Amino acid sequence: MPKIKKNKAESKSEKKDRKSKELSTVTGMRDILPQDQKYWEAVRATAQKVANDYGYGRLDTPILEQTDVFVRGVGKQTDIVEKEMFSFVDQGGDNLALRPEATASAVRAYIQHGLLNQPQPVKLFYVGPMFRHEKPQAGRYRQLYQFGFEAIGEASPALDAQLILMGWNCLNELGVEATIQINSLGCHTCREEYKKELIKYFKSKGKLLCEGCKSRLARNPLRVLDCKEEGCASLREDAPQILDYLDEDCKKHFMKVVEYLDELDVPYAVNPYVVRGLDYYSRTIFEYWSADDAEGKVALGGGGRYDDLVKIMGGRENTPACGLAMGMDRIVSKMREKEINVPEIYQPEIFLAQLGEVAKKKCFVLYEKMRRAGFSVAQAFYKDSLKAQLESANKAKVKFTLILGQKEIGDGTIMVREMEGGVQEVIDYNKVESEMKKRLEKYSELPAPIIIEADTDANIKAGKKNRKQSELDFAAGESDDEARIIDDLPDLAEDFDHLGGDEF
Ligand code: HAM
Fold first, then answer.
1. Which DSSP category does 129 fall into?
2. By alpha-carbon position, which residue is closest to atom 23 of ligand 1?
């Protein structure tokens, strides 16, 4: 029988089949791996610091809420509620939703826990994941992360200005350049008047509107103003502007906000086309746009006043409030794009290396002792080879490596290697903590230029010579064990080939 040659190339259907069997994240959602966490940690830490500075207390609300919290809170006719909510009926028949944002949840919590009896405003800070079933594209995730500040129970424009400043401070402290776009939506009364005029204007230009705006016009005419389609954007230039429709009180409020921002030297642009996509806003609204995003296509954050929301959600009438939320995914992405330096979350200072089973056991104990004493120590006890351990020490960028071998155990000592210069010393094992404290303190006192100086040719040569000499001094006349230690140091192995160290 002739052999049938198997076609090695995977067929399309096979590929599809295999893909469907592979387990992976859901569309629009992603893992944040350890190596990326430093950016997220920097953003969280900055947000927490700003919250502390301005007296905002942390609020954690459940990720799952009654769908009604958002239907009533965010608004039935918003994109978020109409199209983007992950909502479902649970086994008990309750209508639940993954929170698409946290302002409505914060207001629900304020009402539920009677926080209106506390000194006002109640200032809340949150950080966590939100969920929106948006079309996945750059900067748009279905599980997105926000941190935010909400101040409930205060009407003063000073609060609006301070919140705008807080978001600005967060971006500044993270090194992200941004612009602030502000506008006022007025109160319900002035906005209704304005909406009528806006509908009249856009209806007269009906043919030129994009399909989305044609259907949006009757339900949410303000959203036509922030449509990014070319036709709609060109029409808005002659459209009536909300600021001309503000009543006296709303106008005064807005003027005060900008006056405070001027006083604080916070730069801003009054932008009549910023309207925000959530229904609860009144008066001041604002967004933070990346300095290189002139049209605000992927805003870094936004917020505003929501004076009617507490009442809408069943709380006391006349409970004004203001807040903002920042998009952490977008801030992190900007920080990476701009190569902004952030500190490592885990930066050990000392590496603990061991040679032989007895030393390994001793190092286990020493590691715990040093960790409890507050040292930041790395180790690789699961590795036996000293070379491999020292490679790990190099990768971990520690300042010192402690090496414990047979001979040191016998002598009651431990070897310290200063990684930058390669200088090694043997110290009393019982004094390892105080000795390392001293060395680390001395190390941190070293002015940076010393390291830079070491880069000059002459210094490199001198440094190498000293290093080699000290190690030769050390190796000469010492036991095989120590000579092997030297031989195994990764960057020095070549220099000590003649010692013919054993492999570990
Ligand atoms: P928002 O404008 O819907 O406002 O969201 C705030 C920020 O979250 C946005 O500026 C953006 O950076 C980020 N964001 C929103 N959707 C996504 C997404 N799909 N993917 C990535 N990032 C996204 C609010 O959520 C209001 N709760 C803000 C607020 C607080 N207003 C008053 N208090």
1. E
2. 327
